[in-house]
Design goal:
Oligomer: single chain
Order of helices and strands: EEEHHEEEEHHEHEHEEHEHEHEHE
Number of strands: 15
Number of helices: 10
Length: about 325
């Protein structure tokens, strides 16, 4: 099969399209004929081996797993032992290891039927970012009638967070993004959009019941000022050039001080769960949630897709057609 592989950490130039052996499904796994895959920041981190701390789990000198890609949509081609729910021919979506390939193996509990009305490319960009946004809303105890601020509203997680906040009953959702992406964020359901280049979202005296800090680098002190009494700050991300922690120092700092402050601060380390797939599937089929696909690339152009992701130009998500 064709697959996008890497044998060293580095820039997208370390990726190359190669013919490799097709994997065989193990116990509890299915073999997928991959139709589409998604690109997210986790793909870049594992490709680059940055921040350096992650290499402890994925290979100190070189990546243990040669094929990149996690988000996937495809057709079940074969099933391994102990697979009870899925059958050959089922169209599914979810996560796996190595989705930038023509075939990939996935655990049965990491897949769900592809929602009706979604193309493979749309389905392939849902799971990781959508699950993160859903868990952020739940962690933040979003209640109907609340006011929500989404910092980083035009990105992968943010584009789902805006929609989920409205679907879960938020009375007012404010999205923070660049001016060039404001139209996208409004189309996703945001009641108000702030251009971070013109207005500091932590100023102005606004207060929110839930603040989702997905792509910001504001200090914890300034973010806490945004909360209503009883409100919650959920720190989801925030990229920096730090080689060791890559921005995660803010989350670590929040974890250390949160027991000693009155504000409710939570740090989210998201992993897709079967319950998330079911909940997201229902919202997708009802029309309450729609994947925002910025651009689709063929498998051979995965390096270009990752370069675009890192450029900051992406509106929503990038899909790979296999």
């Amino acid at each position: 099969m064709r697959a996008m592989v890497q044998d060293a950490y580095g820039t997208p130039d370390v990726l190359r399209l190669e013919e490799i052996d097709r994997p065989e499904p193990g116990r509890g796994e299915v073999l997928l004929r991959v139709r589409a895959a998604g690109v997210d920041m986790g793909v870049w981190h594992l490709m680059a081996g940055l921040p350096l701390a992650l290499r402890a789990g994925f290979g100190l000198r070189a990546p243990r797993q040669r094929v990149r890609g996690m988000d996937v949509a495809g057709r079940v081609e074969a099933v391994g032992p102990d697979v009870t729910r899925l059958r050959v021919g089922d169209e599914v979506y979810g996560t796996c290891t190595g989705s930038f390939a023509e075939y990939a193996c996935a655990k049965e509990d990491q897949l769900a039927p592809r929602p009706a009305g979604l193309t493979p490319e749309q389905a392939a960009v849902v799971t990781i970012s959508g699950s993160t946004a859903l868990q952020a809303c739940h962690t933040g105890r979003l209640r109907p009638g609340g006011r929500v601020l989404v910092i980083g509203a035009s990105g992968g997680v943010g584009s789902y967070a805006v929609q989920l906040a409205k679907a879960l009953g938020a009375a007012h959702v404010t999205g923070v993004c660049s001016a060039s992406k404001a139209d996208l964020v409004r189309s996703l359901g945001a009641d108000e959009v702030l251009d971070y280049a013109r207005e500091d979202p932590t100023g102005g005296g606004r207060r929110y019941d839930l603040v989702l800090d997905i792509a910001g680098n504001h200090s914890l002190r300034r973010l806490r000022r945004l909360l209503t009494p009883g409100g919650t700050l959920v720190m989801v991300g925030g990229e920096t050039d730090g080689r060791w922690l890559g921005g995660f120092h803010r989350q670590l700092g929040a974890l250390l001080v949160s027991p000693f402050i009155r504000s409710r601060v939570r740090v989210l380390a998201s992993t897709p769960k079967p319950a998330d797939l079911r909940a997201l599937g229902e919202l997708l089929e009802s029309g309450a949630l729609t994947p925002a696909v910025d651009r689709t690339y063929p498998l051979a152009e995965v390096p270009d897709a990752i370069r675009r992701l890192r450029s900051g130009q992406v509106r929503g998500k990038i899909a790979i057609r296999v």
